[in-house]
Amino acid sequence: MIDQLIGAIREKGNPTVVGLDPTLNMIPSGLREQAFETYGETARGVAELFLTFNRAIIDAVADIVPAVKPQIAMYERYGLDGIDAYVKTVAYAKEKGLVVIGDIKRGDIASTAEAYAAHIGGTVIGGDSVDLWKEDFITVNPYLGTDGIAPFVKAAAEKKRGIFVLVKTSNRSSAELQDLLVEGRPVYRIVADLVNSWGKDLIGANGYSAVGAVVGATHPAQGIELRAQLPHTFFLVPGYGAQGGKGADLKGFFDKDGIGCIVNSSRGIIAAWEKDVEFANVPKLGTDFALASRKAALAMKSDLEAAV
User: Fold this and answer.
1) 236: closest CA among 154, 153, 112, 139?
2) Residue 166's beta-bridge partner residues?
């Protein structure tokens, strides 16, 4: 799957992944009113609203970006209806030919980790393996060490999927743990060594492993450091846009051939209509808000071209 992701990035000429992290307050009021009129102010109403919103975004950007990254927490907060919207969002993105990174950040051990790994490994029912989630990649938390990662690596290997392990995250307080020194080395460098070992047997034709790393755009110096440390590790890069990261910060995240990472933007793309004067009347314009998302995605593509 890592080779398919790289192929999609090259085909689109764009290392952007759009984060599908909707909240009620970022959706145009016209859409909210329509959904609540039909389904009531209920979890089902929100789920249908999110699905309509996501499909419009996907339709607007599918020809210019290679991937989307739905954040499962935004859906789980609405229970079974929300989960249904998540699954349908993933399915719709796949129909449109996009790679899907399920941002689930799971981490546990033994049978619990194996159960979480069903996101990419499928689950056996009546002797048959069933792929209920259909994600191509998922994000995972390494805090429990190898016991917590091995089931995900096994699933990635068996199903030719991929994982992105949290290494140096974009949030400011990541330093409280990730920058602590252990025998003179920061924890994130130690985790990076583990990522390298976990993925060493899953390297694809393009020289990158199915075990990737999450490295925040808000830490450009660490990105350069980690790229040198992890020449075979593909990066998922959050923190672009709303958190302050920009294309110029990411030159060191890419390799000499201009590949090596995919950069996420969530609010900066899916809520672009809120700040774009061209779409000031968008609450009255149905799904036209998605045109602002397309415009923002194209602007991000141009910004990243300088880094690549």
Assistant:
1) 139
2) 214
Q: Is the pLDDT score of 284 beyond 60?
A: no
- Measure CA 43 to chain center: 24
The CATH number linked to 54 is 3.20.20.70
Q: Which residues contact 280 (CB under 8 A, 6 or more apart)?
A: none
> Over the chain, what is the mean pLDDT?
93
Distances (CA, A) of 251 to 201, 224, 263, 304, 305: 27, 8, 12, 9, 10
3-state secondary structure at position 127: coil
Strand partners, 164: 139, 212
Query: What does the pLDDT look like over 25-81, one tens digit per residue?
Result: 999 988 999 999 999 999 999 999 999 999 999 999 999 999 999 999 999 999 999
Q: Which of 105, 134, 154, 295 is catalytic?
A: 105
Share of the chain above pLDDT 70, in %: 95
Task: Note the pLDDT tens digit of each residue in 95-122.
Answer: 999 999 999 999 999 999 999 999 999 9
Q: Residue 289: which residues within 8 A CB-CB, separation 6 or more?
A: 28, 31, 56, 273, 279, 282
> pLDDT at position 107, please?
92
With residue 30 as reference, give the H or E element that holds it. Answer: helix 29-39
* DSSP result, 202-222: -B-TTS-BSEEEEE-TT-HHH
Q: Taking residues 286-305, report their average pLDDT.
A: 90
Torsion of CA 70, 242, 181, 233, to 10 degrees: 50
The count of structural domains within the chain is 1
Amino acid symbol at 110: A
pLDDT at position 29 is 87
The verdict on whether 256 is a catalytic residue reads no
**What is the Cα–Cα distance from 191 to 164, expressed in whole angstroms?**
12
Which residue segment(s) compose the domain that 257 sits in? 2-307
CB atoms within 10 A of CB 225: 18
